[in-house]
Specification:
The complex is a heterodimer of chains A (308) and B (250).
Chain A lengths: L1 E5 L2 E2 L2 E2 L2 H12 L2 E8 L3 H8 L4 E8 L8 H12 L4 E5 L2 H13 L4 E5 L1 E4 L2 E6 L4 E7 L4 E5 L14 E4 L9 E8 L12 E5 L10 H10 L2 E4 L1 H5 L20 E5 L5 H7 L4 E6 L6 H4 L2 E4 L2 H11 L1
Parallel strand pairs in A: 1-4, 1-6, 4-5, 5-12, 6-11, 7-11, 14-15, 14-16, 16-17, 17-18
Antiparallel strand pairs in A: 2-3, 8-9, 9-10
Helix pairs in contact in A: 3-4, 5-9
Chain B lengths: L1 E6 L1 E3 L21 E3 L1 H15 L5 E8 L4 H10 L3 E6 L6 H15 L3 E5 L10 H9 L2 E12 L2 E8 L2 E8 L2 E5 L11 H7 L4 E4 L1 H4 L7 E7 L9 E2 L2 H11 L5
Parallel strand pairs in B: 1-4, 1-6, 4-5, 5-11, 6-10, 7-10
Antiparallel strand pairs in B: 2-3, 7-8, 8-9
Helix pairs in contact in B: 2-5, 3-4
Classes of the chains: A alpha/beta (308), B alpha/beta (250).
């Protein structure tokens, strides 16, 4: 078997997620190649060559791959895929954008958010926002997977793979890059933050979310919200954690004034440690919380901020 | 310009799911079903494009059993002009769904096809991208803003860490993310009117697409249960436990 891992990179830097995807490839077993597609990516290729377990880094360095738009990148990958039994990428927005397109070009199924590898053709993946885990077996000759990176420990960067250029010719008349607006806030992004603090309907209004900011600054946390808080108009929808929002798995999740509706739990129950602060001691959130504090959040939050 | 919008019937987002005792699947017997939330956003966007005069007609399409017509009626009540039901009781994987939708795209020739980015049952996040590949179109996935400009559509996409804007040649495929819009509720008179709007029923056979799958679900299990329930008495105790027991803060 031979496996192609699609490297993820931003602004000339190899993303940390790639080392986790290589680990998933090792769990499948076989020869592992890595593809770096982009423009001016020699530095990325060099970093990628250090990942343990990778035998060859293939570099497609051309203007058409700048910003890694789905249309040319999936054409490139589909062109190379015939040499491999598996093609893997991180289940990031980039991987999710490109890999299903690759699968359709190759007329095979795609398997999303792989959590574990049972055998080279059998994988575990979450369905219903992680409320059930499906074991799926693929009969396709080519398996196209995206990998949930938090489920695999990263490989070390002490290797030395060979680097070779790919000279495939791909053009793109379908899409053009216009611009990018990356969050400049010091706060981490919800999906990848180590700590997340979320507010629910109990926050009372949008202004009160400021109470979470001081704590978030001290912990380097991202700020989230329950659907109830979003539906009440306190905060915008992109802050929503839950089945209809973002799925997070931070080391520490602090739920403030959140009752713990099923749809919210689905989005955060994979956090390593859950703290719940709620004045209703019967709130279902306490059943999943490692540490529950019954109290008025308007007293608890300032005190917590001062003691961190 | 015609806009095609795909909707899916799924379990209501508020329902707690149960895995069947034989681990073959999730138990959907007598469970409340609804339109997938991301599909609601797709319908809303299509209807807004019509209200702005950008779209001339909104066609809703679904794939699924007879009961999925409920979701088409919802789409019609929200403002779609007519609907297409590809009726099948079989389980339809993303690739097959994309092939069926491709056939509809061939027939209808929409300028834009809008889908939810994923359904909350299978959580695949694949069909839109697959449809775009099969139709040879550009894709604007996880859209938070859509603007049609001449023969192009400008799509702002939610990506890890921020937003990316791309311009796609029409026709194109768009999948919706949460921020794109806030779906309206259907008003009673519109629900009544929707009952008279036409639904064209088709079958995968008639469309020449075999409902097959290369994926075999071996089993479905519940995830490991969390052991929670411990309470702390004060903020001091909480901070102490986080520092010294859980070791998640410094």
């Amino acid at each position: 078997m031979s496996i192609l891992v699609i490297a993820e990179h931003h602004n000339g830097q190899l993303a940390g997620s790639t080392a986790h995807v290589v680990a998933a490839a090792q769990a499948i077993g076989g020869d592992i190649d890595l593809l770096v597609a982009g423009e001016d990516v020699a530095g990325v290729a060099e970093a990628a060559a250090g990942l343990v377990g990778v035998s060859k880094v293939r570099v497609a360095d051309a203007g058409v791959y700048a910003h890694q738009l789905a249309e040319p990148v999936s054409d490139l990958i589909a062109g190379l895929a015939g040499e491999y039994s598996h093609v893997l990428a991180a289940a990031s927005t980039q991987g999710k954008n490109v890999m299903p397109r690759v699968a359709a070009l190759k007329d095979v199924a795609a398997i999303s958010e792989v959590l574990a590898v049972e055998s080279p053709d059998t994988f575990l993946r979450p369905i219903y926002a992680g409320n059930a885990i499906a074991t799926v077996q693929s009969s396709d000759a080519l398996k196209v997977l995206t990998v949930r990176t938090t489920a695999f420990d990263a490989v070390e960067a002490t290797g030395s793979a060979t680097i070779e250029a790919v000279t495939a010719e791909v053009d793109n008349s379908l899409s053009r890059f216009i611009g990018e607006e990356l969050a400049s806030s010091d706060r981490p992004e919800l999906g990848s933050a180590r700590v997340v603090i979320s507010g629910g309907r109990g926050m009372g209004n949008g202004d009160n979310f400021k109470l979470l900011e001081g704590i978030a600054d001290k912990l380097g946390a991202a700020i989230g919200a329950s659907r109830a808080a979003v539906d009440a108009g306190f905060v915008p929808n992109d802050m929503q954690v839950g089945q209809t929002g973002k799925i997070v798995a931070p080391e520490l999740y602090i739920a403030v004034g959140i009752s713990g509706a099923i749809q919210h739990l689905a989005g955060m129950k994979d956090a390593k440690v859950i703290v719940a602060i709620n004045k209703d001691e019967e709130a279902p959130i306490f059943q999943v919380a490692d540490y529950g504090l019954v109290g008025d959040l308007f007293e608890v939050l300032p005190e917590l901020e001062s003691k961190l | 310009m015609k806009v095609l919008v795909a909707v899916k019937r799924v379990i209501d987002y508020n329902v707690k799911i149960r895995v069947k005792p034989d681990h073959s699947d999730v138990d959907l017997t007598n469970v409340k079903m609804a339109m997938n939330p991301f599909c609601e956003i797709a319908v809303e966007e299509a209807v807004r494009l019509k209200e702005k005069g950008v779209a001339s007609e909104v066609v809703a399409v679904t794939i699924g059993p007879k009961a999925a017509q409920e979701q088409l009626r919802t789409a019609l009540a929200l403002g779609a002009d007519r609907a297409i039901h590809i009726e099948t009781d079989d389980k339809v994987e993303s690739l097959t769904a994309a092939k069926l939708l491709k056939r509809v795209v061939d027939d209808e020739q929409p300028g834009l096809t809008i889908l939810g980015k994923q359904s909350i049952d299978t959580d695949n996040n694949q069909t839109g991208q697959m449809l775009a590949a099969l139709a040879g179109m550009g894709q604007g996935t996880f859209a938070s803003e859509v603007q049609v400009e001449g023969d192009e559509v400008r799509v702002t996409r939610e990506i890890d860490g921020g937003l990316q804007t791309v311009s796609l040649k029409l026709p194109a495929v768009i999948t919706t993310d949460l921020r794109l819009n806030e779906p309206r509720y259907a008003k009673l008179p519109d629900i009544m009117k929707a009952k008279k709007k036409p639904i064209d029923v088709q079958t995968p056979d008639a469309l020449g697409v075999a409902v097959t799958s290369s994926l075999n679900v071996l089993k479905v299990e519940s995830p490991a249960e969390r052991q929670g329930g411990t309470k702390v008495a004060s903020v001091d105790e909480l901070v102490d436990k986080l520092k010294n027991e859980a070791k998640v803060i410094a």
